[in-house]
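Can anyone check this?
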Amino acid sequence: MDRGDTGGSGGDKIFTICLAPDRFHLRHVGQTRQGNGYWVTSQLASEAGGTRDFIVGYLFDQNGEMIAADVVDLGLRKGGYDIRARLRDRLKPC
C-alpha cells in the first residue's frame, strides 16, 4: 500500500508490502524471537545445463526495513526434484 510519503533519498516514495502467510505462495513468513520479520522462498533459473535452484531468505527490522538478504545456490537439478532434501544436504546441524 502506497502511503505517498517521501523518503530522504531524492523524493522516492515509501510503501508497505504486507507479507501474509498462505498455503501456496508465502508459506515461510514469520517473526524471529527478536521481533524481526523474515521471508524464505525458493527460486529457479534456467540455463544451458538445466535448471538451477536457489533458496532466498530476507530479514526485516521491526519497522519493515529490509536489513539482510541471503541467496543459497543449491546447484543444478539432477534427476528428481526434492528441494527439501537438497537443502537438508547443504545445511549443517546446529
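Reply from J.R.: I decoded it. Strands lie at 2-6, 13-15, 29-31, 37-47, 50-60, 66-76.
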